[in-house]
Amino acid sequence: MTTATATTSSNRVTRDFEKPLWRRVLVSREMGVVALLIVVVIYSMVSVRGFGQPITVNYLLLDVAPILLIALPMTLIMITGEIDLSVGSMVGLASVVTGAGVHAGLPFEVAAFLALLVGALGGAFNGFLVTVVGLPSLAVTIGTLALFRGLAVGLLGTTAVTDFPEAWTALAKAKISGTTIPYIMVPFLILLVLFVIVLQFTPFGRGIYAIGLSKEAARFSGVHVERTKFLLFVLAGLVSAFAGIYYTLRFGSARGDNATGLELQVIAAVVLGGVSVFGGRGQLYGVVAAVLLIGVLSSALRLANVTSDVINVITGVLLVLSVVGASVLTWLQKRRQHPNRLPRPAPSAAS
Predict the structure, then answer these.
(1) Residues in CB range of 27: below 8 A, 6 or more apart
(2) Residue 264 CB partners (closer than 8 Å, separation 6+)
(3) What domains, with CATH codes, occur in the chain?
(4) Which of 226, 296, 305, 345 is deepest in the core (most CB within 10 A)?
């Protein structure tokens, strides 16, 4: 670690906390996403016919539930400066393991437990390659993305398993009594509270931010960098497997191609929600707002008879603008802090 790197990270944290708490909360990229979400919801309710109906809200939450779940561990991983591109494939693999277990005559609960175990092992495999072998997470998870998807397709081929217990499939789509909120939001809210507590109020969470700011400085401060990253990858695999079980029950089908491309939606939401792609910055409430924002946009545009290709283009443009906008704001902030800074002249040969 160089002195310049440590000083830059220290200054970055100090500048953040020089501002009052209300300003850090209200004048932030995350709060901007929340405000945009509110504007889009209000505009959609006024302009898009049928958007405000209870059934629309129910299907919206059912659709975004897997993304909401996986975005929680993905946020923590990306704050450390790493990434996991294999989560969508793990959803598909967990779906296939659940379906294959039920098809083989196992009780659904046993099949689901095996799927969770596979998720934890897949996450541990990613974590081992990143933290012990020392490979970059981008390369590792691109490889395991193909590996997990290949295993999923290889286990079932083109066969689809659909003979799941009706009680479980009904529960996956059921609503909380007297509301339009599906039951899947209950485990999500429990996980959200746990993740917020861990990230904001524990030494483990502070270590996650420290790793993202400077891995070397975090290690010298007593943070177990490799162990922290390993646990986060295991957690991502476990939560992805849980999302895969829900995905299977919600659609009543286990296929090798389930949740194809889901990892891109998760990463888009996390980045849009204010998590820095370089690590060291991000808040869960911004990520949750970004997931809902993308879901609301997609739902409203579908109701307005916009094709899926156009929806993907709009989502991509929104993501690019969020990344570019963050860079521009950072540049403007530096210019405002040092408006008269001029480059130092090069020393002459005579001196």
Answers:
(1) 19
(2) 88
(3) 21-333 (1.10.3470)
(4) 296
